[in-house]
Design goal:
about 0% strand, 5 helices, about 160 residues, mainly alpha
């Protein structure tokens, strides 16, 4: 892929979910549930609205788990599936925003470099022509300063 567009993140697999649930298992639960049902419901929370494919990146799940353990939910209990998904979505939004910022920055730097490299370079003849014209202009300005009659004629308005 282009160096501007990052590779898509790896989506969370059952193994990632089980690792997250094992870490979250240290938090007290509000109620006891069957482990198989819990795994299925949490996996469903990581999938799209149709329940077909997982749409939460493994990295986002990992960071969300760390945040929850650090108290991001405002309570010290094991999260519900919607709470876990909400924190995963927040992490994803932050990741996407940061990627967008980085892409914009890289694009701006590339465009600045292209402009710098694409500056017009003048031939030696063009440079000599401009130099000669500048010298002639400077001589004319110096002559006007030395000989008052060489100064441009005034319009006569407002002069005494």
């Amino acid at each position: 892929m282009s160096d501007l567009v990052p590779d898509p993140p790896r989506m969370a697999a059952l193994k990632d979910l089980l690792e997250a649930l094992a870490k979250l298992g240290a938090l007290p639960r509000r109620s006891m549930t069957d482990v198989r049902i819990e795994e299925a419901v949490f996996m469903l929370a990581l999938k799209d609205e149709q329940g077909g494919r997982v749409v939460v990146a493994a990295e986002d799940l990992h960071k969300a788990t760390q945040r929850i353990i650090s108290g991001a939910l405002g309570h010290g209990f094991h999260p519900s599936p919607p709470e876990l998904r909400r924190v995963c979505d927040q992490v994803k939004d932050e990741r996407v925003t940061e990627q967008s910022r980085r892409i914009r920055e890289q694009r701006m730097m590339r465009e600045m470099e292209e402009r710098r490299l694409g500056r017009v370079t003048h031939s030696a003849e063009e440079r000599e022509r401009v130099r000669a014209k500048a010298e002639a202009t400077m001589r004319a300005l110096d002559a006007a300063a030395i000989h008052p009659r060489l100064r441009p004629k005034s319009t006569g308005k407002g002069e005494g």
